[in-house]
Amino acid sequence: MEPKKVFSPHQVYVGSFIGGPLCATHLIYKNFIVMAKPKYALITILIGVAFMTFLLLPINFLPEKLPYITFPLLYSGIAGAIVWQFQVSKEEEAVNEEYSFISNWLVAKYSAIYLLVTVLLFLATFYGYSLFGYSYA
Q1: Domain for residue 114, yes or no?
Q2: Percentage with pLDDT > 90 across the chain
């Protein structure tokens, strides 16, 4: 039987760090679908959308001294921990022939696509704030 392809915790961590929370949501969602856990997949989508909203809406009101790396480290760490805890770890994959990990090139592709989408969402958010008179300087 052909092993099911899933994303490893490390792939999700790196993919989400580069591609943002939308990439993390997509990768975790795909893993839950492959593992036949549609309830968890739906919860992943809902949490991902809520977190992206939480990230976008207050962006104009955050303190200027907050390091830029704070949020990427936060959501990447959470995403990697979710995969490690609820999905497949390297150790499980080594002894379980049911799963194998997806190519890193596919993770790079998803990361690049979601990086572009995230940048466009942030630009749209800044533009929306400027339409309502809020400055981001």
Answers
A1: yes
A2: 31
Which residues, 6+ apart, have CB-to-CB distance to 87 below 8 Å? 6, 9, 28, 31, 32, 35
Taking residues 112-118, what's their average pLDDT? 94
- Counting the structural domains of the chain, the total is 1
Rounded distance between C-alpha atoms, residue 113 and residue 136, angstroms? 26
Q: Which domain holds residue 41?
A: 4-131
Run of H or E residues at 122: helix 104-131
**Which string of b and e fits 95-131 if b means at least 16 CB within 10 Å?**
eeeebebbeeeebeebbeebbeebeeeeeebbeebee
Find out whether 108 and 101 touch, Cβ atoms under 8 Å.
no
pTM of the model: 0.81
